[in-house]
Amino acid sequence: MNDIPLLRAVALHKTFKVSAQGHSTRVLTALDQVSLHLSAGETLGIAGESGCGKSTLAKIMAGLLKPDAGDVLYKGTELSQLGRSEQTAFRRKTQMIFQDPFSSLNPRMRVGDSIAEPLKIAGIPVPSQRAELARIMAAVGLQSDTVNRFPDEFSGGQRQRIGIARALAASPDILIADEPVSSLDISIQAQIINILLQMKTDFALSMMIVSHNLLVLRHICDRIIIMYLGAVVECGPAVELFDKFRHPYTEALIAAIPGLNASAASKGELLRDDLPSALSIPAGCRFHPRCRHAVEICRHEVPNLVEYTDGHSAACHLSRQLYG
Ligand code: SF4
Questions:
Q1: What is the mean pLDDT of residues 200-224?
Q2: Which helix (H) or strand (E) holds 161?
Q3: pTM listed for this prediction
């Protein structure tokens, strides 16, 4: 059995220089020693508050952004070692879906042409292109008579269907979706999630879904990674993570889900203050200024990501004490 992950990140580190008016340039740490893997056929969720590095991670995994240190491996080969043609093949096999599909579509291109563009680039004969275009549009629930319309003639949900269709036209192995439903109405969100689930089966995809919505991730993912200020703080099977979280930050995120009485305590009791700036990450456990359990060691020693049960890890000095 081949146990090399389809996609793997090893110790990714990424910073951005930011300069505010009247201030010197400062360094924002978006990712700090992030390692993860995506196995063939798996759906992996990445969760955390805005500004925790999720989108930066998604772009690096899709090869759209280079890390400062660390690497991404596709089927065991480092992206930085791929030749030009292999890079092109990787980009085709790893497609990204964005929160705002409108921004990734050419407003002056008819949607049929936009969706079929990857088929043309792949050199597929025109008759086969038409057949494939019809198949993909039907799969994502787009009417075939909409091919000649322009992106601004569609609703947000339909545009996201177009974005998914365009990604599928490249025959990807991997779909990386960055907040694919967060800008949509609740009823439309469910439709798009169901399409993604169906596509995973019909097109034999592996998926990485970035979302701040843990309920969405629990519904569609096999595993979930929780990020906080650029680092992985917990990772585990989706259902187990909800039933037996091992990190106070995960507990707080679950407690914040409306109507889900996962914790006796409220989010306010579990999570102090707002997310600190990634310009100055706290020493020790980066979560300690907001953690109600913080003790002395938390303020000066970085907790390691420790595996407690098969595939379930957390980075908290007190995880065993708090959660058994
Ligand atoms: Fe809280 Fe300490 Fe655990 Fe960090 S290491 S989450 S501060 S208890």
A1: 93
A2: helix 156-169
A3: 0.91
